[in-house]
DNA sequence: GTTGGGTGTCATGTT
DNA sequence: AGAACATGACACCCA
């Protein structure tokens, strides 16, 4: 049986803890509840939205995810999200080839348009009166089939950003819509009514208020107050469009099932043969519901701590690349206890148990703390006085999480060691170390033997050298008192040398203990920092997912509204317009115009050139 | 017998 | 300069 190092049991002692790593990552703790998507966005949230939108566009999310062949990559994307999304760029542009089969794809923006796009639409443009041409600053809104209609990505105009993202998706939607119109069954009223020649020269700048919008205003309010308050187009040259079937549409229109209305499951391959009744969602891969739930659950577990075990398990699942093992034993209580031990050097429970055992043991091993007050050193059982309390942190790491277990320290004392291994045989008093065969004697002898074993090497040496005072005094007395003590006795040179060695070793032993304690505390703090960073990471990831989810919903709404508006537009003959030849364009003044696609193309190219010119 | 954790000690550098 | 302190390295003990 051995003893616990009593140096750790005493109270008192100064703690000069210099832990430079404690505040290493303190700045990362951002205790901020996730803001509701789209509401009360703080500056940080806006920045995050910007980043996410950049990622969306840069990643080409509007392209590849349209195709079901790319849905197969969703799992990879989910995995990326679990990894923190740092590697999200890897899947950028992967899915363009599928669309490229049937579509002409803008290599940069991913915008696609049917390869069989009418080639002679230029004549339309020529026939269009110049005054009907939308202003140059018009933003190409929801003109999916336009080539080169990428909106300049201006972060200062976040709504335009949103529109541009939506455009990427609406591009696909409108392509689908065009196919609906072109390839609808014969019985379809739209197709039967449609007979507009592709190159019919018509001024088709249409004020939406001249068309029937039915009951969609509430949906408009969802995406743009500008659209909601569309001014009446002042262009007298615009042909009034005859609304048709608005009432019937009103009865069946629903913002939630518009996708099903406008996107039949089968499209003839030119657009997107995977666009089923559900809207193709470029974010589908990122927004897997299972992943969302997982993240939410994990975040709940981590942030709210409703179940530390589950939280830790989820955390381990979530972060497997961490070199540090964050075992579940690091509950907040254990951490705080550990932290408390580092800040407070007085542990009453340990000191009391130590003193009780020390009273029965003769050990005076010079494990003492920084305390230099004479009261401590005057106590014969002062061996328990220490500076740091390394055991407390150590217990945390040794799974002695329950502080109440510290009350069992008298038993734990025997964990320690008696490091007398390198003691010189001559220095040992042979009487102090009886052979093991003589151990089974009376209780007094057993106790004496036990106490002998508790003695450290220096204690044995001191006893052998007849040092007239305790090692505690030797070690803990201040220099002045120590020298004064030495002056009181007539000591030989050997004795003085031994006393100085004892003092040196005793202090160094305490220093080593403190050093190890600090090392443990540093590790614990680093682990806690890792946990904090993981918590922040999970929170940011959850916020990102929330934003993406909200963005997807807005995209769907805008797509539906676009299709609804465009589908209801009728020319003077009551026939629908071809999506391949006309597009709605969102003007800067809030009006929405129906223009030929060639015009939209030209404007888009103009706008595309402008930023480049500015760069020059 | 091996291994990992705990401990004491030494050497060295810093305060 | 000396004392105190900090720390890496090493050896040893023990489970």
From TrEMBL:
<feature type="compositionally biased region" description="Basic residues">
    <location>
        <begin position="607"/>
        <end position="616"/>
    </location>
</feature>
<dbReference type="GO" id="GO:0008289">
    <property type="term" value="F:lipid binding"/>
</dbReference>
<dbReference type="GO" id="GO:0080135">
    <property type="term" value="P:regulation of cellular response to stress"/>
</dbReference>
<keyword id="KW-0175">Coiled coil</keyword>
<keyword id="KW-0812">Transmembrane</keyword>
<keyword id="KW-0443">Lipid metabolism</keyword>
<dbReference type="GO" id="GO:0000981">
    <property type="term" value="F:DNA-binding transcription factor activity, RNA polymerase II-specific"/>
</dbReference>
<feature type="compositionally biased region" description="Low complexity">
    <location>
        <begin position="321"/>
        <end position="367"/>
    </location>
</feature>
<keyword id="KW-0472">Membrane</keyword>
<dbReference type="GO" id="GO:0008203">
    <property type="term" value="P:cholesterol metabolic process"/>
</dbReference>
<feature type="compositionally biased region" description="Basic and acidic residues">
    <location>
        <begin position="442"/>
        <end position="457"/>
    </location>
</feature>
<keyword id="KW-0256">Endoplasmic reticulum</keyword>
<feature type="coiled-coil region">
    <location>
        <begin position="516"/>
        <end position="557"/>
    </location>
</feature>
<feature type="region of interest" description="Disordered">
    <location>
        <begin position="426"/>
        <end position="457"/>
    </location>
</feature>
<keyword id="KW-0010">Activator</keyword>
<keyword id="KW-0805">Transcription regulation</keyword>
<feature type="domain" description="BZIP">
    <location>
        <begin position="498"/>
        <end position="561"/>
    </location>
</feature>
<keyword id="KW-0539">Nucleus</keyword>
<feature type="region of interest" description="Disordered">
    <location>
        <begin position="1"/>
        <end position="22"/>
    </location>
</feature>
<keyword id="KW-0238">DNA-binding</keyword>
<dbReference type="Pfam" id="PF03131">
    <property type="entry name" value="bZIP_Maf"/>
</dbReference>
<feature type="region of interest" description="Disordered">
    <location>
        <begin position="597"/>
        <end position="616"/>
    </location>
</feature>
<protein>
    <recommendedName>
        <fullName>Endoplasmic reticulum membrane sensor NFE2L1</fullName>
    </recommendedName>
</protein>
<dbReference type="GO" id="GO:0000978">
    <property type="term" value="F:RNA polymerase II cis-regulatory region sequence-specific DNA binding"/>
</dbReference>
<dbReference type="GO" id="GO:0005789">
    <property type="term" value="C:endoplasmic reticulum membrane"/>
</dbReference>
<keyword id="KW-1133">Transmembrane helix</keyword>
<dbReference type="InterPro" id="IPR004826">
    <property type="entry name" value="bZIP_Maf"/>
</dbReference>
<keyword id="KW-0325">Glycoprotein</keyword>
<keyword id="KW-0153">Cholesterol metabolism</keyword>
<keyword id="KW-0678">Repressor</keyword>
<keyword id="KW-1207">Sterol metabolism</keyword>
<dbReference type="InterPro" id="IPR004827">
    <property type="entry name" value="bZIP"/>
</dbReference>
<dbReference type="GO" id="GO:0033554">
    <property type="term" value="P:cellular response to stress"/>
</dbReference>
<keyword id="KW-0735">Signal-anchor</keyword>
<keyword id="KW-0804">Transcription</keyword>
<dbReference type="GO" id="GO:0005634">
    <property type="term" value="C:nucleus"/>
</dbReference>
<keyword id="KW-0446">Lipid-binding</keyword>
<comment type="similarity">
    <text>Belongs to the bZIP family. CNC subfamily.</text>
</comment>
<keyword id="KW-0753">Steroid metabolism</keyword>
<dbReference type="InterPro" id="IPR008917">
    <property type="entry name" value="TF_DNA-bd_sf"/>
</dbReference>
<feature type="region of interest" description="Disordered">
    <location>
        <begin position="315"/>
        <end position="376"/>
    </location>
</feature>
<dbReference type="InterPro" id="IPR047167">
    <property type="entry name" value="NFE2-like"/>
</dbReference>
């Amino acid at each position: 049986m051995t003893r616990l190092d009593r140096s750790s049991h005493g109270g008192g002692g100064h703690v000069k803890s210099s832990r430079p790593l404690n505040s290493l990552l303190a700045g990362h703790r951002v205790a901020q509840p996730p803001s509701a998507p789209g509401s009360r966005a703080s500056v940080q949230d806006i920045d995050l939205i910007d980043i996410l939108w950049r990622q969306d566009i840069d990643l080409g999310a509007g392209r590849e995810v349209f195709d079901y062949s790319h849905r197969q990559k969703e799992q990879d994307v989910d995995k990326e999200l679990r990894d923190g999304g740092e590697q999200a760029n890897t899947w950028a542009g992967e899915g363009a080839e599928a669309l490229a089969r049937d579509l002409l794809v803008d290599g940069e923006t991913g915008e696609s348009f049917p390869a069989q796009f009418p080639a002679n639409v230029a004549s339309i443009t020529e026939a269009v009166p110049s005054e009907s041409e939308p202003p140059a600053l018009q933003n190409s809104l929801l003109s999916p089939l336009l080539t080169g209609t990428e909106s300049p990505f201006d972060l200062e105009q976040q709504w335009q950003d949103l529109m541009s993202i939506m455009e990427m998706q609406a591009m696909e939607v409108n392509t689908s819509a065009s196919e609906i119109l072109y390839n609808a069954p014969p019985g379809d009223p739209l197709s039967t009514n449609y007979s507009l020649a592709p190159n019919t020269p018509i001024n088709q700048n249409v004020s939406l208020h001249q068309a029937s919008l039915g009951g969609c205003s509430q949906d408009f309010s969802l995406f743009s107050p500008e659209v909601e308050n569309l001014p009446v187009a002042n262009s007298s040259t615009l042909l009034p469009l005859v609304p048709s079937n608005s009432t019937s549409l009103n009865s069946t229109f629903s913002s939630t099932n518009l996708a099903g209305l406008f996107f039949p499951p089968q499209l003839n391959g030119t657009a997107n043969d995977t666009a089923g009744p559900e809207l193709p969602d470029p974010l589908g891969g990122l927004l897997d519901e299972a992943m969302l739930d997982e993240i939410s659950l994990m975040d709940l577990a981590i942030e709210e701590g409703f179940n530390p075990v589950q939280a830790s398990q989820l955390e381990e699942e979530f972060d497997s690349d961490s070199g540090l093992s964050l075992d579940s034993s690091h509950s907040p209580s254990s951490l705080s206890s550990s932290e408390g031990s580092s800040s407070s050097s007085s542990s009453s429970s340990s000191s009391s148990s130590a003193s009780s055992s020390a009273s029965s043991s003769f050990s005076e091993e010079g494990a003492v703390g920084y305390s230099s007050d004479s009261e401590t050193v005057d106590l014969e059982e002062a061996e328990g006085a220490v500076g740091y309390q390394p055991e407390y942190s150590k217990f945390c790491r040794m799974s002695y999480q329950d502080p109440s277990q510290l009350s069992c320290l008298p038993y734990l004392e025997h964990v320690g060691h008696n490091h007398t291994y390198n003691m010189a045989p001559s220095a040992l008093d042979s009487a102090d170390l009886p052979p093991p065969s003589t151990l089974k004697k009376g209780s007094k002898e057993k106790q004496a033997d036990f106490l002998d074993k508790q003695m450290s090497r220096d204690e044995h040496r001191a006893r052998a050298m007849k040092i007239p005072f305790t090692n505690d005094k030797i070690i803990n007395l201040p220099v002045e008192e120590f020298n004064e003590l030495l002056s009181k006795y007539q000591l030989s040179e050997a004795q003085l040398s031994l006393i100085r060695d004892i003092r040196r070793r005793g202090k160094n032993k305490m220093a080593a203990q403190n050093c190890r304690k600090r090392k443990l505390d540093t590790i614990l703090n680093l682990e806690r920092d890792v946990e904090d960073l993981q918590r922040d990471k999970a929170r940011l990831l959850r916020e990102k997912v929330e934003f993406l989810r909200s963005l997807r919903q807005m995209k769907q709404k805008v797509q539906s509204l676009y299709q609804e508006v465009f589908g209801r537009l009728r020319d003077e003959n009551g026939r629908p317009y071809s999506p391949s030849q006309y597009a709605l364009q969102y003007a800067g003044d809030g009006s929405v115009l129906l223009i030929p696609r060639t015009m939209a193309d030209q404007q888009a190219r103009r706008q595309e050139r402008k930023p480049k010119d500015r760069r020059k």
